[in-house]
Design a protein that fits this description.
heterotrimer; A mainly alpha; B mainly alpha; C alpha/beta; A: mainly alpha; MetI-like fold; two-stranded antiparallel ribbon; 4% strand; elongated; C: alpha/beta; four-stranded antiparallel β-sheet; 12 strands
Chain lengths: 413, 327, 373
């Protein structure tokens, strides 16, 4: 088989046989939202489900905030297993985020061929597949696992226990939970990853830290992409002075070094997780907006937009129905790469002590262990490893997604 | 149009950006609850005095009376003349505090930036030229590593390894040594780890971008044409690929690098105990020294604005193709 | 064009059985699968073929300009000036490139480095092979620009590529190619990316340069009109191999290989353009499927004269055509076609005699098969 005139194999021609199969004629971007939504003209099962979900969500939040007062939202016990959940504001946001995600994934599930095609391309990056598996585990542990596990508890007697299979000089922990062999306190399975100076199990801290990271990453990113998509698509579609003004604003917002913005705002408004998430979400959308805008600009030139307009569609309608779905690939990729940045920023802020110090954030735990580096080195190391692994996983994932979904976006390549 | 006009417009825009940021910062600070004020009111109430009068007296003393815009203008004026406010917690002018801390910050950021930029571009270019070789994979791996590793944690781990376990570098930073003998070997020794940690974050980013940009050109027709003229691979790399790569690279690099440096240095200073700007800022926040917070936040922001400006100008200078019309 | 010189024993360029492969994600692609041809001083040889025929790869393989990886020259000889370029060292190649063999690329906009001035790039071309001072080099550069017809060269020399029109850019590229005073100029579709009006100007330029300096010209093109105008000899390529080879008169007046014949008949009026659409008209009979051409003749799935013999073995070797004895008798210059019908067991009349219906406008002597045996 003869290749194209120019030397083939440059990697830029990503269609046809290179992926081991014919690409389906539509990509995620071509998903026909109109047909998915339009069964029954606006009252499709999906729409209905979304409305019901939104309604019940509203009710639940209202009841928790206004009615329940200080009582936990859910307090049940099934045959010995207690299930208590006192929903905080962040938790509500998290539920909302997860619901939105679920609804966003529905059209994907309907289009099996598309998913299979993307999966085939994605599967080539082995580190990315491993990363995906790892992240799913973290996600489940962090969201579902934390509901059933006890939060890390203060227990001074169990301070400074080493991780299992390791040992530390017996003088360091106050009491050794495990056996003392040759003057060294052995680690036990009771605290597989060791304990901190407060006797809190590092494994529990790590898992609860997962929840914090997940919440920060997902909620803030959702906020960011919502704003970014709205701004970017509007700027691209409206053009003219609106575009100019919006982009100038983005310029200024991006000139402010993000970390300092966080720092500054955290200083002003306190470091609660809720505030942090809102700040991240509301200030971190600039880059994504630019991407959305440039993608949307390319799309606006395409005929179907003109066709829609000449058929009488209004501006926002065209934007929502035609432009946005077609830039979704870029959005997904940008979002996935945004999450690790947020997780890292949150960890950094917690590390410096600006976050909520009662939260079991990974950064917080690392900071707590700093004073004991010479003796109980695992306190700082373990959460750091989790943090590193999670960020690395997201970066691998994001890179692979970019290759699979939207190779154009990468700078170069 | 022309270069001069373009420069003027970019400078003007930088000014506007700085101005907007200053305004926003000032307004935010003004509206934020002032913990000092709260404390005074609380104390007044506790001792039975009138909280209201105490608050007024406080405002008077601190120059917080008068309409917002008046205070703002006064503040701007002060900034321009070098009066950046007074730091209560350090009992010195804010500007003085900043200037004392600055050299410590520069001591490790400058070498880190220089090294990482040069090495990053070199490795990135080499990678692009020798795609899919072992060196390329190794470099890509390092890049991923550098971008993903939390630098504060990395610093801690390195300290653990090289200072605590091996004793090759001191565990604590000796500020006195740095101040009196900055160019000594001993100072270099205590700066190795901070430079390394900061450099790793920066180099990873630079390397990735350099490689990605250079890849555009490595297979370019004009590279092939240069080869057809009989140019050596080295010449092609250094003369034909480097220049066009630097153009888009500089746009990404400065902004990105600055972001990394500014935020990472914060963390690096905390981890290693270097009394630079980052640590100063943090202390200010912890002790709620508002004037100092403002000052230490403004410095990096203004540096960022300047950096972006320089980046735009560099881009215009390097690429003869760009139209100085609109950005 | 010019009268072909007497066949000489040692041609300027002798390519024999050149094979170039590319390793891609989808597998190994043999872009050039055994081509051979000769080129003499002062001669113009055209490599003709549609998109995908491997002609550009072939042209770039001569001085090993192919990106390696993913490409590699697997076998064959490229004899130039007594040396085999296919196996020469990097240093030897660099000495030849630019100085003895120069290359002009298809898209002049992209073949010029955008961040350097025209002068800078010309000086580079000159100074890479000649130890002259900057001032001398600059003077030579201005002279070169003048030679290729750039108006006001002393000023334009400091222009940047993007400040010039397409036609001017290509002239600059030609000037760069001439800087080393090469013996052979390889031009890959030099006019394709240009406006129609500019195309003939550039062609004229190439012709005049050739007659002035006597250099050999290897022109890669898909435009049969260009071939008819400038070629001395033609090498027709399809799918990486040579289908037909001969002097331009022979090939155009007595096209032998079914592929050549189809190309020349594709649109009435001989001045055809081998753009993919034209080729697709030819392919209408039986759309070619890539996998089909692994054994036997590559053209078989699109050939109206395909027989069982075409499916066997490899690509048929180049057999002399019926008029071979009347044209140049020398092996390298003979009119040959890679088709079983011209082989010892075949009957050329099968191809040559086939009556093409509705051939309005094509000259009568073609279908009459003037020189049939």
């Amino acid at each position: 088989m003869i290749g194209a005139e120019d030397s083939p194999g440059t990697g830029t021609d990503d269609s046809e046989s290179a992926d081991g199969g014919e690409p389906p004629s539509e990509r995620f971007e071509d998903v026909d939202w109109a047909s998915i939504d339009a069964d029954g003209g606006g009252r499709s099962p999906l729409r209905l489900a979304a409305l019901v979900a939104a309604g019940s969500y509203g009710l639940a939040v209202a009841s928790d905030r206004l009615v329940a007062g200080g009582d936990p939202t859910i307090d049940v016990a099934f045959g010995g297993v207690a299930f208590v959940w006192d929903a905080t504001a962040v938790d509500w946001l998290f539920v909302a985020t997860l619901s939105v995600l679920a609804f966003a994934l529905v059209p994907l599930a309907r289009n099996r061929r598309l998913v299979a095609y993307y999966w085939r391309r994605f599967r080539r990056h082995r580190p990315a597949v491993l990363s995906l598996a790892y992240l799913l585990v973290i996600f489940l542990l962090g969201t579902v696992g934390t509901l059933f596990l006890d939060p890390p508890a203060l227990d001074v007697a169990a301070a400074y226990q080493p991780p299992v299979f390791l040992s530390v000089d017996a003088s360091i922990p106050t009491e050794c939970v495990g056996p003392v062999v040759e003057g060294r306190c052995q680690g036990t399975w009771r605290y597989p990853l060791g304990t901190t100076a407060d006797g809190k199990g590092l494994l529990a801290l790590a898992i609860f830290g997962m929840r914090v990271s997940m919440q920060v990453g997902l909620i803030a990113t959702l906020i960011s992409i919502t704003i970014a998509t709205a701004v970017g698509a509007t700027a691209a579609y409206a053009g003219g002075w609106i575009d100019e003004a919006l982009m100038r604003y983005v310029d200024i917002q991006q000139t402010f070094p993000t970390f300092f913005l966080f720092l500054f705002l955290a200083y002003l408004y306190g470091g609660s997780l809720f505030v942090l998430i809102v700040i991240f979400g509301v200030t971190g959308w600039g880059g994504i907006a630019r991407i959305v805008r440039s993608e949307a600009l390319q799309r606006s030139e395409e005929t179907y937009v003109a066709a829609a307009r000449s058929a009488g569609a209004s501006g926002p309608f065209v934007v929502w129905r035609h432009v946005v779905p077609n830039v979704s690939n870029s959005i997904v990729t940008a979002a996935t790469l945004n999450i690790p940045v947020l997780i890292l920023s949150e960890a950094a802020l917690s590390f410096i002590g600006l976050g909520n110090v009662t939260l079991p954030s990974w950064g917080q735990t690392i900071a707590a262990g700093r004073g004991d580096l010479a003796t109980a080195w695992w306190v700082s190391t373990v959460p750091g490893l989790f943090l590193f692994a999670t960020i690395l996983a997201f970066n691998f994932l994001g890179n692979a997604l970019r290759d699979a979904l939207d190779p154009r976006q990468e700078v170069g390549r | 149009m022309g270069l001069k006009w373009y420069t003027a417009r970019r400078v003007a825009w930088a000014g506007v950006a700085a101005f907007v940021i200053l305004t926003v910062t000032f307004v935010l600070l003004d509206y934020a609850p002032d913990p000092e004020l709260a404390r005074i009111q609380f104390r007044a109430a506790a001792t039975g005095a009138d909280a209201e009068t105490a608050a007024e007296a406080y405002a008077e003393r601190r120059g917080l009376t008068g309409p917002l815009w008046e205070r703002y203008l006064e503040y701007l004026g002060n900034l321009a003349t070098g009066d950046w406010g007074w730091s209560d917690t350090r009992s010195q002018p804010v500007l003085a505090a900043i200037l004392t801390a600055l050299p410590y910050s520069l001591m490790y950021t400058v070498p880190a930036v220089a090294l990482s930029t040069v090495l990053g571009i070199a490795i990135g270019l080499y990678s692009a030229f020798n795609q899919y070789t072992t060196t390329d994979y190794a470099a890509t791996f390092v890049a991923f590593f550098g971008v993903s590793i939390p630098n504060f944690w990395f610093g801690i781990v390195l300290l653990l390894l090289f200072a605590v376990q091996l004793g090759w570098v001191p565990v604590l930073f000796d500020a006195e040594l740095a101040r009196t003998r900055p160019l000594s070997l001993a100072n270099a020794r205590q700066l190795v780890l901070p430079v390394f940690v900061l450099g790793t974050s920066a180099i990873a980013s630079t390397m990735r971008y350099a490689r990605a940009e250079a890849l555009e050109y490595v297979r370019a027709a004009f590279v092939k044409a240069a080869r057809a003229k009989g140019a050596s691979e080295w010449r092609i790399l250094t003369r034909h690929v480097l220049r066009p790569t630097l153009v888009p690279l500089s746009t990404i690099l400065v902004g990105d690098l600055l972001g990394i440096i500014l935020s990472a240095s914060y963390l690096v200073e905390v981890v290693f105990g270097i009394p630079g700007l980052g640590r100063l800022s943090l202390e200010a926040i912890r002790r709620q020294d508002t004037a100092l917070v403002l000052g230490t936040t403004l410095v990096p922001v203004l540096v960022a604005v300047l950096g972006n400006l320089l980046q735009d100008l560099a881009y215009a200078l390097l690429d003869p193709r760009i139209d100085y019309g609109d950005r | 064009m010019t009268d072909p010189p007497a066949a000489s024993r040692d041609s300027l360029l002798h390519v024999e059985d050149l094979r170039t492969r590319f390793h891609t994600d989808a597998g190994t692609v043999t872009a050039v699968d055994g081509i051979s041809f000769d080129l003499d001083d002062g001669e113009t040889v055209c490599l003709v073929g549609e998109s995908g025929s491997g002609k550009t790869v072939a042209a770039e393989s001569l001085t090993r300009l192919i990106d390696d990886p993913p490409g590699e020259i697997v076998s064959g000889t490229v004899r130039f000036d007594g040396r085999d370029l296919a196996t020469a060292s990097e240093a030897e190649l660099r000495a030849v490139r630019g100085d003895r063999i120069a290359h002009v690329f298809q898209n002049p906009q992209r073949a010029l480095n955008p961040v350097y001035s025209v002068g800078w790039q010309l000086l580079e071309a000159i100074q890479l092979h000649d130890d002259v001072s900057k001032a001398d080099a600059r003077a030579r550069a201005i002279d070169l620009l003048d030679r290729v017809g750039i108006p006001d060269p002393a000023t334009r020399i400091d222009d940047y590529p993007h400040e010039l029109s397409g036609g001017m850019q290509q002239r600059v590229a030609i000037a760069m190619a001439l800087a080393g005073e090469p013996d052979l100029l390889v031009a890959d579709e030099p006019t394709t990316a240009l406006d129609v009006t500019i195309q003939s100007q550039v062609l004229r330029l190439l012709e005049s340069i050739q007659s002035a300096s006597g250099l050999g010209l290897l022109l890669v093109t898909h435009d049969l009109g260009v071939v008819a105008e400038v070629a001395d000899r033609v090498v027709v390529m399809y799918d990486g191999t040579v289908m037909e080879r001969g002097s331009v008169h022979d090939v155009f007046e007595r096209p032998s290989h079914p592929y050549t014949r189809a190309l020349l008949d594709a649109i009435p009026g001989r001045d055809v353009d081998l753009t993919p659409t034209a080729a697709r008209d030819v392919a209408d009979r039986d759309p070619s499927s890539a996998t089909d051409s692994t054994t036997g003749c590559r053209f078989r799935s699109r050939c109206p004269h395909a027989v069982d013999a075409c499916r066997e073995g490899n690509q048929p070797p180049l057999h002399p055509t019926p008029d071979a004895t009347t044209s140049a008798p020398d092996g390298a210059r003979a009119h040959v076609a890679a088709c079983v019908h011209f082989g010892p067991d075949g009957d050329p009349d099968v191809v040559v005699d086939s009556a093409k219906s509705a051939d309005s406008g094509s000259s009568a002597d073609e279908s009459a098969g003037g020189d049939r045996r």
